[in-house]
Design goal:
The complex is a heterodimer of chains A (about 110) and B (about 120). Chain A is mainly β. Chain A is about 0% helix and about 50% strand. Chain A is built from no helices and nine strands. Chain A has a five-stranded mixed β-sheet, with no helix packed on it. Chain B has no helices and eleven strands. Chain B is mainly beta and about 120 residues long. In chain B, the strands form two sheets. In chain B, strands 2, 4, 5, 6, 9, 10 and 11 form a seven-stranded mixed β-sheet that branches. In chain B, strands 1-3-8-7 form a four-stranded antiparallel β-sheet, with no helix packed on it. The chains are: A mainly beta (about 110), B mainly beta (about 120). The interface between A and B is medium-sized, with 29 and 28 residues.
Chain lengths: ~110, ~120
Amino acid sequence: LAKTTQPISMDSYEGQEVNITCSHNNIATNDYITWYQQFPSQGPRFIIQGYKTKVTNEVASLFIPADRKSSTLSLPRVSLSDTAVYYCLVVGYGGSQGNLIFGKGTKLSVKP
Amino acid sequence: GAVVSQHPSRVICKSGTSVKIECRSLDFQATTMFWYRQFPKQSLMLMATSNEGSKATYEQGVEKDKFLINHASLTLSTLTVTSAHPEDSSFYICSVTAGAQGGQTQYFGPGTRLLVL
């Protein structure tokens, strides 16, 4: 199972772009990279998932370099409501669906 | 994505009693569900994998006789904390796996806050 490493915390201001990087040096060929957002006393919420290069949806972008040993979640123009903990997970496709190991996550604090 | 609900959202019980937490997959038939526990200011810890129609698979260090899991249908898994003690007070979260294309994505319930007095 690929272990992930993220910064413990990040600070930002409203309107700024925030990039959170996650390292996963032992990622396997079949692994996908998934990011979750968690607010206090709530279950994690799926943000974005990718395998390589770049993925973009309505809330974020995910950049994955060619070696796939890291990934960067990009949140454009953050607001106060984006203050949360963000988790990066590496999950195997198909049969490797169990044992989701959550790292410590990155606590993002957005200030006015 | 899959919609997952949990009931109750919070529960307070006396030490020594048992508490049942329900996890429902509302729009997706889930042969597998996962149960996590999260203590304050800590990350989620996987407790067990709930398999429909068969025994659950528990992570190392999780007592199967204390945390009883039943996955009787494709839309319902229950976690029963037996003889609860104050140290069992935590935030319990379930999830289902969905995704025919690409990587398996976990969709989480809203969580259940358990406080044991």
